[in-house]
Amino acid sequence: MRWRRFILVSALAMLGMSSANAQLGELRHNLSVGVNAGVNLSSVEFSPTVRQKNLSGMVIGATARYISEKYFGMKCGVRLELNLSQHGWKEFVEDFPDLQYQRKMTYVDIPFLAHLAFGKDRGLQFFIDGGPQIGFFLSDSDKIDGDWDSMSGVVVEQHTLPVKHKFDYGITGGVGLELKTRKAGNFLLEGRYYYALSDFYGNEKKDYFGRSAHTIITIKMTYLFDLTNK
Questions:
Q1: Per-residue pLDDT tens for 147-162?
Q2: What is the CATH number of the domain that holds 200?
Q3: What's the domain count of the chain?
Q4: Residue 18's pLDDT is what?
Q5: What is the rounded distance in angstroms from the CA atom of residue 158 to the CA atom of residue 210?
Q6: Do the Cβ atoms of 204 and 53 come closer than 8 Å?
Q7: Which of the pair, 95 or 195, is modelled with greater confidence?
Q8: Residue pair 140/165 in contact by the 8 Å Cβ criterion
Q9: Where in 48-180 does DSSP place strands (E)?
Q10: How far apart are CA 79 and CA 168, in angstroms?
Q11: Quick check: is 78 in a domain?
Q12: Assuming Cys at both sites, which of 39, 41, 158, 222 could form a disulfide with 188, CB separation 3.0 to 4.6 Å?
């Protein structure tokens, strides 16, 4: 089951963090906090399939990061975010440009990330983040144009279904560059991918969809300033 996979991924991520801290290296105590903002390019994995384009939405939130160790030039730590994030999907039907449908869904997302960085203490660094993410559905809105009811062979059940499962969970990861300065703080640019293991519509045998899960590409900027740096 998908929740078992989520637990396994979470356990492996936590084990990876613990293993990194257990290695002999240069101990560090670098706590940073800040803000992040960017854009989501979202779609939904439906079964049966629904033809889609990516839907753009915003993501904005707060970030905390703790670097605990430097091991052979690699900085090891953890990163936590609390984000207000827009997910959803946008549909299209070939040869019928007048038919338009989109649903934008707002969540509070909380990614728990292992953070590995390579580079100079001051200057440019390359980093990799990855780990589990949970989310809580807040609200949604949709927009529809055209006579969808007259189309035969086109899936439209998703247009009227309400969100049944408001707790979202999955795995996320990405790469990025960080510019670390002595006085101005730290500036991060990153790309990230999220794959949901949960469905937001009902997925029992009696339900129409067996799969309705978010997939999201995120491009974002983050600004962090150090609270402690030893």
A1: 887 777 788 899 999 9
A2: 2.40.160.20
A3: 1
A4: 46
A5: 12
A6: no
A7: 195
A8: no
A9: 52-53, 55-71, 74-91, 100-119, 123-145, 167-180
A10: 19
A11: yes
A12: 222
Q: Is the peptide bond before 132 cis (omega within 30 degrees of 0)?
A: no
Distance from C-alpha of 120 to C-alpha of 75, rounded to nearest angstrom: 10
Cα 27 to Cα 75: distance, rounded to the nearest angstrom: 10
- What residues pair up with 77 in beta bridges, in sequence order? 67, 115
165 inside domain:
no
- pLDDT confidence tier of residue 15, bands split at 50, 70 and 90: very low
Longest dimension (CA), the chain: 67
d(CA 195, CA 91): 19
C-alpha to C-alpha distance for 165 and 64, rounded to whole angstroms: 28
Rounded to whole angstroms, what are the CA distances from 190 to 14, 36, 172, 187, 220? 22, 11, 13, 10, 6
In the block, residue with structure tokens 């002595």: 182
Whether residue 93 lies inside any domain: the answer is yes
Closest CA to 177 of 117, 95, 99, 135: 117
Find tokens 């390579």 and name the residue: 118
Residue 182: inside a domain, yes or no? yes
Q: Would you place residue 113 in the very low, low, confident or very high pLDDT band (cuts 50, 70, 90)? A: very high
**Integer Cα distance of 9 and 14 in angstroms:** 9
Highest averaged pLDDT of the listed ranges 146-155, 165-174, 177-186: 165-174
**How high is the pLDDT of residue 174?**
97
Identity (one letter) of the amino acid at 120? K
Q: 148, 159 in Cβ contact below 8 A? A: yes
51 versus 193: which is more confidently predicted? 193
Residue with tokens 């290296």: 25
Please, are residues 66 and 114 in contact by the beta-carbon 8 Å criterion? no
Report DSSP state, residue 165.
-
